[in-house]
Amino acid sequence: MKEAEKKKVDEIELRSEDFQEVLSDMPPWILRWGITTVATIVVILIIGSSIFKYPDTITSTITLTSSKPAANIVAKSSGKLQELYVEDNQTVQTGDYLAVIENPANTADIQYLKKFLQTYKSCPDSIDSLPMKEMNLGSCQSLYSSYYLTLSQYIQFKQIGYYQDKIDMMKNRIVRNEKHYQDVLRQKELVKKQLALTYKQYQRDSILHQKGAVSGKDLETTNNLYIGGQLSMENMLSTLENLSMQLAQMKEELLDTEYQYIDKESTLITQLKSLTIQLLTEIQAWEINYVLITPIPGKVTFTNYWIENQNILSGDIAFSVIPSSNNKLIGKALLPTERSGKVKVGQKVNIKFSNYPDNEFGIVRGIVRNISLISVKVETKNHYVVEVELPEGLTTTYGKKLPFVSEMEGQADIITDDLSLLERILLPIKKILTESL
């Protein structure tokens, strides 16, 4: 047994010597080509590692929205959908009624009253007819009764025209009395002239009486005429004074009547304006509580409610309205605070939407547009909100156009450092050298 093992060892040593002899006699060209090949491979690896990029990314969640996000229509009260005015994907305008939750009021009556009030809100004095009296207005009923009564009084006040007719009559009477006053004034001037002539006649008769040319009886007659003229003048002056006082009293009464007219009209108009504002406020409160109204133009999208008589709870989102105008798409990414300092405006973002697998649809390119200055707490961790702009919209790297779905979620890979493989290999060495200095 020992001899066999010894023989085997001798054979191995013999072969090793043969192998060493072959190696020692290796042709030089094989060695040269081997070194060249290895060197070439090393150079190629170095060049390749310096050319090929290995970007450093930070992954975050992203939600797609727009510059004019969709408006969620939230119910403010619970009950059945009493009336539904739209269909799914129907185009709507700002202020349109989408649905009404059950309530005591009649929607048509409320809309009629609202339109009536808005028409005459700024100029209630132009109302010439009453609105419908019998209406079912729910919580607005009591206030509307006061408004209807006040409006009835105002229209009656204008139609009867008591104060206006009275003012016109007083003005006519003043005009007539002023004319009469002028007539008496002219008569006074005539009496004055007549009195002057009578006085001259009396003076002449007095001189002639002293000379004996006129009898005493004739002088007395002339004197009586003069005294009568004086009495006529006094009567004229008294009449003018009375007429003047009457005119002043009439004008005072006219002012009082005009004031009463203006005060009455102003009071009624003020009451109407006040009641109009109160009613519109009450209608607005009714709309907030029971009416689902779109605040923006766009297309309405049904979520959990689509037919009448469905029960809806306060706080539920009944519908969503997607804006119809051109919107700029924006992604809102939640960036973890870890390594967030590496993210800067202008960096590229690769977005993969959950609805569309990236291996089939590709990815969407984006650019960091803005980074929030303070972090927000989401669940238990703090995050920065990063706005991501989509220069090419929802066109993917595969050339596919993805449809816009509001609040679409996905994954955002923010490319912070686009380093080559060589730079990434040298980074640890650079760190060691820097820290050792």
TrEMBL record:
Gene3D superfamilies to which the protein is assigned, alphabetical: 2.40.30.170, 2.40.50.100
Topology versus the membrane: Single-pass membrane protein
Cell location: Membrane
Name of this protein: HlyD family efflux transporter periplasmic adaptor subunit
Organism whose genome encodes this protein: Bacteroides thetaiotaomicron
GO cellular component: membrane
Domain AprE-like beta-barrel: from-to ranges: 332-416
Primary location group: membrane
PANTHER family: MEMBRANE FUSION SUBUNIT OF EMRAB-TOLC MULTIDRUG EFFLUX PUMP (PTHR30386), TRANSPORT PROTEIN COMB (PTHR30386:SF26)
Matches recorded under InterPro entries: Beta-barrel_AprE, MFP, Single_hybrid_motif
The entry's keywords: Membrane, Transmembrane, Transmembrane helix
Classification of source organism: Bacteria, Pseudomonadati, Bacteroidota, Bacteroidia, Bacteroidales
